[in-house]
């Protein structure tokens, strides 16, 4: 994904949270409503994955094999 698409997706997500409809966003950005839905779903999936990783317990660290 290019930087311009990433920034576009952030704007789409912000406007959706502010109450914009899928149709309005699709018209503004020149994509279909289903594309807007897919963008929002992917952003949410990524957000959940990051949250899950941050909340996961730390892995056990062991000494290197043969180390003292």
From TrEMBL:
Record GO biological process: DNA-templated transcription initiation
Domain of life: Bacteria
Protein name stated in the entry: RNA polymerase sigma-70 region 4 domain-containing protein
Pfam family, one: Sigma70_r4
Lineage of source species: Bacteria, Pseudomonadati, Pseudomonadota, Alphaproteobacteria, Hyphomicrobiales
Molecular functions (GO terms): DNA-binding transcription factor activity
InterPro entries (UniProt xref): RNA_pol_sigma70_r4
Domain RNA polymerase sigma-70 region: start-end pairs: 7-41
């Amino acid at each position: 994904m290019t930087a311009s698409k990433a920034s576009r997706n952030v704007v789409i997500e912000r406007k959706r949270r502010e109450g914009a409809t899928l149709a309005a966003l699709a018209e503004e950005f020149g994509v279909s409503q289903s594309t807007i839905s897919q963008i929002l779903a992917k952003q949410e999936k990524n957000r959940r994955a990051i949250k899950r990783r941050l909340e996961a317990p730390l892995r056990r660290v062991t000494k290197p094999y043969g180390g003292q």
